[in-house]
Amino acid sequence: MKKQPEEVAIHYAKTHLSRLLAKVSRGRTIIIKKGSRPVAQLIPVRTAVRTRTFGLEKGRITIAEDFDSMPEVFKKHFRK
């Protein structure tokens, strides 16, 4: 069952922002009110978890035969 959002006054939110953000990072929702009127909502950021699928570009990417060799003009800029 989903918990009801916690409601706090603006002054409390300003004074205890770190504490409120810790709750939000654990999945809670915080409603900030001015008097009895809700004015803002702190909610957790949902980041998409992407799974990697290996091999999607197979056959579409080629590496040149001379990939590891450096042109002479650039060699002088590097130490040996």
Question: What is this entry, summarized?
Answer:
The protein has helices at residues 10-15, 17-25, 72-75, and strands spanning 6-9, 30-34, 37-42. It has 80 residues and is α+β, with helices and mostly antiparallel strands.
Keywords:
single chain; 80 residues; alpha+beta; YefM-like fold; elongated
Write up what this structure looks like.
- This protein is of the alpha+beta class and 80 residues long.
- The chain has a domain at 6-42: YefM-like fold (3-Layer(aba) Sandwich).
- 24% of the residues lie in helices and 19% in strands.
- It contains three helices and three strands; from the N terminus they run E-H-H-E-E-H.
- The chain has helices at 10-15, 17-25, 72-75; strands at residues 6-9, 30-34, 37-42.
- Strands 1-2-3 form a three-stranded mixed beta sheet.
- Strand 2 and strand 3 (37-42) form a beta hairpin.
- The radius of gyration is 27 Å and the shape is elongated.
- The model has no long low-confidence stretch (mean pLDDT 89).
